[in-house]
Specification:
This protein is of the alpha/beta class and 372 residues long. The protein is built from 13 helices and 13 strands. The chain folds into 2 domains: 194 residues, Glycogen Phosphorylase B (Rossmann fold); 159 residues, 3-Layer(aba) Sandwich (Rossmann fold), CATH 3.40.50. The strands form 2 sheets. The protein has a 7-stranded parallel beta sheet with strand order 3-2-1-4-5-6-7, sandwiched between helices. Strands 10-9-8-11-12-13 form a 6-stranded parallel beta sheet, sandwiched between helices. Strand 11, helix 10 and strand 12 form a beta-alpha-beta unit. Helix 10 packs across helix 12. The mean pLDDT is 95. Keywords: Glycosyltransferase, Transferase. This is Glycosyltransferase family 4 protein.
């Protein structure tokens, strides 16, 4: 079976890229599978994650201006070339199924090319963010674009969503729920004794790191020996803003932006808790990774990911944007080693359900159904 995955790039660290590497490597290692990855703007950059050498890569060299909308004239004029090159390479590969991974320009034209080949689209963000836009579109363009997006989604053979809450946002009957698989399941787990709280991910406003700084400002005076380590990359200007806020609150000795890492597993194993303050999520893989390392999690109950992973046995869900409760629960957990161990052990058990073989079996079944 020949599988094509389409993504914009695989040189920037991110959840979509990480999950793609897991899926692609899994199938590349299996007999009778050929895996191809088509990118539109790799720009000869090295891969951010390890990919099996049997995987064939094709970069279309479209190179959109990522600082502008895909619908900006600068980018729109590149669209015909993108469509032509995508259609050509898919025809050459002649795959059994095509999967669009990232939410980029190809999302909107792939269902209409090489029509005999089954196509699936992954959604790694929560459609919760579209609710207000649909109720009160700011312009006619936005109103009709959302209608167009609904039409396009109906043309895919499958829409893959990450949790049951997301299904209600789609207006078609072609959805299937497949959560993200674990990237690792270490033999050993954290002993939750180090005085380190960890958070990781793309440094972007949606992740709520500014809120996390406010929360840490309440926590740190109670436990000044504890540190908060944040891993990830993002826009330098935004990171500088966050660092300034840290300095303004005199937290620079205990709240540290560590940059990106290729070894988040080791960082988690040497931490005692994981925290998340996102405005919205879909199915945050990083929470499963933290659970696999035996870490208790304290997270906002934002739409919709954390609530599908965390329960009262393995972590603490905080009412969204209630900084006071978040800080209070962190403080209590810092002072209760026994509770941290109990939650961490249960978190580890929960993560087992998302081991790669358990999840990839669902992908395999879907591919087999589509290829028929």
């Amino acid at each position: 079976m020949r599988i094509v995955f389409i993504i914009d790039q695989v040189y920037l660290h991110g959840g979509i890229e990480r999950v793609l590497s897991i899926k692609a490597n899994y199938f590349a290692s299996k007999p009778n599978y050929e895996v191809f990855i088509i990118t539109s703007e790799q720009k000869d950059n090295p891969f951010c994650y390890e990919f099996d050498k049997k995987i064939t890569f094709h970069d279309l060299k479209i190179n959109y201006n990522r600082k502008k909308s895909y619908f900006h004239p600068t980018n729109l004029k590149k669209l015909p070339k993108h469509i032509k090159r995508t259609k050509s390479i898919i025809k050459k590969i002649n795959p059994n199924v095509v999967v669009v991974c990232s939410h980029s320009a190809d999302t909107y034209f792939v269902p209409f090319i090489n029509k005999k080949i089954p196509k699936a689209k992954e959604f790694h963000y929560s459609k919760f963010i579209e609710i207000e836009k649909r109720k009160n579109p700011r312009s006619l363009f936005k109103k009709y674009f959302l209608k167009f997006a609904d039409y396009v989604e109906g043309k895919y053979d499958r829409l893959i969503v990450l949790n049951p809450n997301e299904v209600e946002y789609y207006r078609t009957n072609n959805t299937i729920i497949i959560p993200n698989p674990l990237t690792f399941y270490p033999e050993n787990v954290s002993d939750v004794s180090s005085k380190v709280v960890i958070s990781a991910g793309r440094i972007a406003p949606v992740k709520g790191y500014d809120i996390l700084i406010d929360i840490w400002n309440k926590v740190s005076p109670k436990y000044p020996e504890w540190e908060l380590h944040i891993y990830g990359d993002g826009e330098p200007v935004y990171i500088d803003e966050l660092k300034k806020k840290v300095k303004d609150n005199n937290l620079q000795d205990t709240l540290i932006f560590q940059g990106s890492t290729d070894d988040i597993q080791n960082k988690m194993l040497h931490s005692s808790m994981y925290v998340m303050t996102s405005h919205n999520e879909c199915f945050p893989l990083v929470l499963l990774e933290a659970q696999a390392c035996g870490l208790p999690i304290v997270s906002f109950d934002c739409p919709h990911g954390p609530g599908n992973i965390i329960n009262t046995d393995n972590g603490i869900l905080i009412p969204h944007y209630n900084n006071e409760v978040f800080a209070d629960q962190l403080i209590k957990l810092m002072g209760d080693n026994k509770k941290r161990k109990e939650l961490g052990e249960n978190a580890r058990k929960n993560s087992y359900n998302y081991k790669i073989d358990n999840i990839m079996g669902r992908w395999k079944k879907m591919f087999e159904e589509l290829s028929k």
